[in-house]
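call fold(seq) -> tokens
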Amino acid sequence: MTAIEVQLIERLKKLPPARIAEVVDFVEFLASREERAAAAERLTAGLARLDALKLPEVSEDEVEAEIQAARQERRSR
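ret:
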């Protein structure tokens, strides 16, 4: 265990339960922020790879046709 972990645990032991609950909430908030940041990085990298493919743009009509085809396929199962 690192020195900072030991310090945190010692300080947590001195807090009342209500404050410990606040600490837990804050730690969960920080963790979710990190998860969102990591997801944003993955999305950015994925979009960059997609952009690098230089694929032709897809029209709204083509998108709608794909959606309708997928729905029809699902219905026929």
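Residues 3-76 form one domain.
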